[in-house]
Design a protein that fits this description.
With 422 residues, the chain is an alpha/beta fold. Helix content is 46%, strand content 15%. Strands 3-2-1-4-5-6-7 form a seven-stranded parallel beta sheet, sandwiched between helices. It has a six-stranded parallel beta sheet with strand order 10-9-8-11-12-13, with helices on both faces. InterPro entries: Glyco_trans_1, Glyco_trans_4-like_N, Glycosyltransferase_grp1.
């Protein structure tokens, strides 16, 4: 049963990232929103003004390419004065606190009625707005965990102040305890959540980042020039030193690498490429998801690199799914869950040593063995359709919502029976 709910079920979605922002978080929220709308839910979105990775990007009308969302009256955006993406962690925390407080004010003064509050973290503070909304509207609360805070803060090595991390851990536990259910986008998050807050396994569901049917690409890339691509964030969680070494080695082999990146380490990488005069490395400005998927299809392999830290062993990067959606074999410097997935389904090659020369050897092998590339392409498409397919996976969330409605009906039934005997 697909958790059939009454069409009047109202959901308040609270998220920092939403359309038209680029990145996995925004794309995840947009797809959940659209698919729930198609199933008859009434969705109100509480989010921030589009500013990831920077606000100026969204002056370009190309990013505002969905007329239905552009004209939607039920998407509320809070403005934020603080600078967002900075190496200064205090500045970033102030940013998160500012928009969380504004979201709390919205919740306290908004007269809407909601049955379910769906709040997406990180940042961890946004969950507090979700808890207040839960009690304000007497609603069920679903906490969507896209990354583990404060674990990921320690993983990127920019914030190791023990008293603050202790406080964040207490907030994390509080949010897990107050949630009626928790959604995770990596199955490895479940064990951590159970350890921190003793949450029953049945209250945690796995809903990975995924692809829509119209995004899946099965056509053969017939350009004779072999090209690799790196897309997405170039920040603290990504191994920029490894990317520098890889760029240098690929240039030696005259293999073209396109970098469609953004983030606080992008300029550092771009400057390195210019200084080293790496003529086979090119940078492409951040673009829409649709255009990025088109660019993926014009290449032959996708590059993935995460900083070596056990924190990142649990994650399932969105770009991994995007590469597979485009039929690209993966060349990855990762460990943990991502490594196991790539190896189990034979969709690419892995190096845990962070050795750029080893990665280049894998790339050259795929360049010289088109049949292997085609096999990995087929494996990627099959894996996406079987496990990372939004039209199917959204049913997990709908079934969860259905459990809430059935529980609510039982409660109302009990109240009615008591009243009959009074």
């Amino acid at each position: 049963m697909e958790g059939c709910l009454h069409v009047s079920t109202k959901v308040l979605m609270i998220t920092q990232n939403f359309y038209p922002e680029i990145g996995s978080a925004s794309n995840r929220m947009k797809n959940i929103y659209q698919l729930l709308k198609e199933k008859g839910y009434e969705i109100t979105v509480l989010t921030t003004v589009a500013s990831y990775p920077n606000q100026n990007l969204y002056k370009n009308k190309d990013f505002w390419n969905d007329m239905n969302l552009n004209e939607a009256q039920h998407i509320h955006r809070v403005t934020v004065k603080k600078r967002k993406y900075s190496l200064n962690m205090i500045s970033r925390l102030l940013f998160y606190l500012e928009f969380t407080l504004k979201m709390i004010f919205f919740v306290l003064f908004n007269r809407g009625k909601y049955d379910i509050v769906f709040v997406s973290s990180p940042p961890i503070f946004i969950g507090i707005a979700g808890v207040i909304a839960k009690f304000r509207y007497r609603a069920k609360m679903v906490l969507d965990i896209r990354d583990l805070w404060p674990e990921s803060l320690k993983g990127v090595g920019v914030f190791n102040y023990t008293p603050i991390l202790w406080f964040f851990t207490r907030v994390e536990k509080f949010l897990y305890k107050k949630s009626d259910a928790i959604v995770v986008n990596s199955p490895r998050f479940s064990k951590h959540i159970q350890q921190v807050a003793n949450i029953p396994e049945e209250n945690i569901i796995f809903l990975p980042n995924a692809a829509r049917e119209f995004e899946i690409h099965e056509e053969i890339h017939d350009d004779k020039l072999f090209k690799a691509i790196y897309t997405g964030n170039i920040g603290l969680a990504q191994d920029v030193d490894f990317l520098k070494s890889l760029a240098k080695e690929l240039d030696k082999e005259k293999v073209h690498l396109s970098i469609v990146g953004y983030g606080m380490k992008r300029e550092e990488l771009k400057q390195f490429v210019a200084e080293q005069q790496l003529n086979h490395i090119s940078f492409i400005a951040p673009t829409t998801r649709e255009e990025c998927l088109v660019l993926n299809r014009q290449h032959d392999v996708g590059i993935l690199a995460l900083t070596k830290n056990e924190v990142f062993d649990t994650v399932l990067p969105g770009k991994l799914i995007d590469y597979m959606t485009s039929g690209l074999p993966l060349i990855a410097s990762v460990s943990g869950f991502s490594k196991q997935l790539i190896e189990k389904y034979n969709v690419g090659y892995i190096t845990e040593s962070r050795d750029a020369k080893e990665i280049v050897e894998h790339i050259l092998y795929l360049k010289n063995h088109p049949n292997t590339r085609m096999e990995m392409k087929s494996n990627s498409i099959r894996l996406v359709r079987n496990h990372f397919y939004w039209e199917k996976n959204i049913l997990e969330l709908i079934n969860l919502f259905g459990r809430f409605e059935n529980s609510s009906k039982k409660m109302k039934s009990k109240v009615t029976k008591v009243e009959m005997y009074e």
